[in-house]
Design goal:
The protein is mainly α. It has 2 domains: about 35 residues; about 100 residues, DnaA protein, C-terminal DNA-binding domain (Chromosomal Replication Initiator Protein Dnaa, Chain: A), CATH 1.10.1750.10. It contains 6 helices and no strands. It is elongated and about 75 Å long.
């Protein structure tokens, strides 16, 4: 049987190994997120187009404000980013300072609102077409448009 001192030494060694692994993982994630925090250029472009279409300050697309003007525009930009780019939900969420679940919620919320509000659906369609035109043929295999 190992002495308590020896057991403590082994424990400390394993904790140090785990902390090193955590630090390496954190560094890898920060490196990967660094590219995302600066938002891929196509997502930034979608943010700008949607902000203009909804008459919202583009800075609010990434902000934490949840007012009646910024939130719907931000959700449309998230939904269109998912629809028109090949980025992961996590990447899109990070570009908006949100998580992937928020992107999923945005898609469902926009689909529902488009189904019940024709004026809103028209704005989304206009924004989508402007985004498609701006992105060009960069993403030829995008998913079908929101209903």
């Amino acid at each position: 049987m190992a002495s308590p001192r020896h057991a403590l030494t082994i424990f400390r060694s394993r904790v140090a190994e785990l902390l090193t692994a955590v630090d390496e993982l954190r560094h890898a994630l920060e490196t990967a997120a660094g590219d995302v925090r600066n938002a891929p250029g196509d997502v930034k472009l979608i943010q700008k187009i949607v902000a203009a279409e909804f008459a919202v300050d583009p800075r609010l697309m990434v902000g934490r404000k949840r007012d009646a003007l910024a939130a719907p525009a931000r959700m449309v930009a998230m939904a269109l980013s998912e629809e028109l780019t090949g980025h992961t939900l996590a990447c899109i969420g990070a570009a908006f300072d949100r998580d992937h679940g928020t992107v999923i919620h945005a898609r469902h919320a926009i689909e529902g609102r488009c189904a019940t509000e024709s004026r809103f659906a028209h704005k989304v369609t206009l924004a989508r077409e402007k985004c498609r035109a701006a992105l060009g043929e960069k993403y030829p295999g995008t998913v079908p448009a929101l209903r």
